[in-house]
Amino acid sequence: MGNNTIDGLPPLREVIAEHGLSAKKSLGQNFLLDLNLTSKIARQAGDLTQCDVLEIGPGPGGLTRGLLHEGARRVLAIERDERLTPALEQIKEYYDGRLDVVFGDALEVDVTAHLQGPVKVVANLPYNVGTELLVRWLTPQNWPPYWDSLTLMFQKEVAQRIVAQPRTKAYGRLALLAQWRCNAKMVMEISPQAFTPPPKVTSAVVHIERLPKPRFPADAKVLERVVATAFNQRRKMLRASLKSLSPNIEDVLNSVGITPTQRAEEINLEQFCALSRALA
Ligand code: SAM
User: Fold this and answer.
1) Nearest by Cα to 76 from 42, 111, 35
2) What's the number of domains the chain is made of?
3) For position 262, which CATH number holds?
């Protein structure tokens, strides 16, 4: 694996060897070298020909090349590790400038300044900032957000939390935030052996498409607070875990049809939205 090439550029193994790109654990570097696989991931995002694609953490460019090969109008890649400059420059040149790279921390860079809609986000996210970036994409000030879809690779355990249903261990804040204003599904699993170096756990790709408006009305800030508070003590009954939100929390819960002895895990999205409206 990894010696194939879908374009006229050298195989990634050669690129890595030529530039001495040993993977840094501190930057969550696990690279995908099989360009057939990265093209398949790119295809999960649908038609890219009319879109700007935002990619976080291109590394030596495996997924970037997949995206460009699949016809992305343009790719904006944010990368923290400047050692990757020559590898990414080579891709930019080959694809006639359809790639732009900004070196910096994805948590700091204002990407909207560099993008033209419609925008799709596609990334094999660095492990240490993946969840934080997802939460930021899901909780912007205004809805709809600047992006149409997010096609993201996570550890499988995080992917399961995004698509989880009530009454399961994985159900919680990520599921509710994702499913309130988006459709989210897991579309691929990727074994550790696909990466260099292989991580300890299986990965999965989640495809998230934004809805034009929320499934149920609620104030975003209130909903986020209610959900975070409820799942902060997920084993407790709601009358206890949500006590800080209202002096008469039992009455509020009853008024929206939630039994105060229920636990966060048993409450579905519609009920959390109703509860948020009652508390707003
Ligand atoms: N996309 C490549 C692939 O699939 O082979 C590399 C994925 S690797 C899991 C994550 C990449 O994110 C690394 O290249 C790493 O340097 C970069 N990275 C780590 N933290 C970052 C941050 N805060 N902002 C931008 N890039 C970051």
Assistant:
1) 111
2) 2
3) 1.10.8.100
Name residue, tokens 């994702």. Answer: 178
Distance 27 CA to ligand 1 centre (A): 7
Residue 166 lies in a domain: yes
Q: By residue range, what is the domain housing residue 125?
A: 12-210
Termini Cα distance of the chain = 54
Q: How many CB atoms lie within 10 A of CB 24?
A: 11
Per residue in 19-61, pLDDT (tens digit) is 999 999 999 999 999 999 999 999 999 999 999 999 999 999 9
Q: What percent of the chain has pLDDT over 90?
A: 96
- 168 vs 127: which has the higher pLDDT: 168
Q: How far, in Å, is the centroid of ligand 1 from the Cα of 134?
A: 14
| Secondary structure element (H or E) that encloses residue 156, with its range | helix 156-163
Do 122 and 238 fall within a single domain? no
Nearest CA owner, ligand 1 atom 10: 126
Same domain, 226 and 256: yes
What distance in angstroms lies between residue 164's CA and the mean position of ligand 1's atoms? Answer: 26
Rounded CA-CA distance 225/212 in Å is 23
Task: Based on the fold, state whether residues 247 and 203 are members of the same structural domain.
Answer: no
The CATH number covering residue 110 comes to: 3.40.50.150
At 113-147, the pLDDT tens digits run: 999 999 999 999 988 899 999 999 999 989 999 99
Ligand 1 atom showing the smallest separation from residue 81 Cα = 16
107 lines ligand 1 (CB under 6 A): yes
Ligand 1 midpoint to CA 85 (Å): 13
Q: Which of 33, 55, 81, 193 gets mutated to test ligand 1 (max ligand atoms within 8 A of its CB)?
A: 81
